[in-house]
Amino acid sequence: MARFFITGGGTGGHIYPAVAVAEALEGDDIFYIGNPKNLEYEIAAKKGFKFLGINIHGMPRKIGFSLIKWMFELAFATAKCCFYILKYRPDAVFGTGGYVSAPVLIAAKVLNIPYMMHDCDACPGLVTRGMAKGAECISVAFENACKVLDNPNCSVNGNPIRPGFKTLSKEDARKDLGLKNKLTLCVTGGSQGAQSINNAVSEILMKLSKNYDLQIIFQTGRKNFENVIGRLKNIYPEYESDKNLLIRPYFEDMVTVLKASDIAVSRSGSLSISEICASSIAPIFVPYPYAAADHQRKNARYLADKDAGLYIEDDCINADVLYEIISSLINDKEKLSKLQQNSFALAKFDGLEKIVSRLREII
Fold it and tell me: What is the CATH number of the domain that holds 123?
């Protein structure tokens, strides 16, 4: 039995691929390292992983006192990771990039523990680029990412996605959600929601339902749910009796939600893209404008260049623009089908198996 340190946190795009790999290492001894104040702790705890905590936050982008303070924070977190490595003696470390994985990977390099990295984005992040040279191997989700990484052992595997994306049919997914088997739109800004998307969608739910009999699954985000409901009560007082609408703050099971859908309005985090592609969905991306290194916009452009998605800038989205784009897909079945086929062609269902196999090889 091998022992692995798994790390990745801060956002779902770093956490869920790390968790997928941890779950796939069945029979091995797994320790998950992250910030106990972040989402990774909640998810790792539910999965039953042994959790090792470190205090680390995102690096300030401007030179000043906050950056100096962060450098001390990184140094202390790295020292703590060195302690964890010396205490538990992992055979290898696996990290998914982002600030949470930085001290773990640095400690592994200092103590000569083999490590592997996976980067989800079309343009790899600062940690992946900085730690690439010392990695035994690197896995990426997009083919153009290898070009900027200083490591000859770079392979394109796609993102690790959950098994349900391979097996669940649209009909069964809709049945599981209590929906009819008809054209369905999914709206999601991630677990926290996206106000720009929520505001635009709230204004057009009634028209989409009444004019097109479109079924809509709407994840508002936990922080934005009350605001959305308040707006709907003014815009569409009868929304609660509309059987075309399924509105919740958060869906635990996004596999079923996405597999039930034909069209999606979504942020363009890499994991979201991978899961949308695996669900044969025509995506309309609204990139989060403040993402590190502008990676969401780069991800969305990559899909748009492949004719596998449409995208709207966050400051350009409004009810009229969004309604026009969704209507154009509903009215043009050929265009809708082409986007679905092209997005599905980018899906990689064997990424998790390839990543885990390579990770075992570096021990």
Answer: 3.40.50.2000
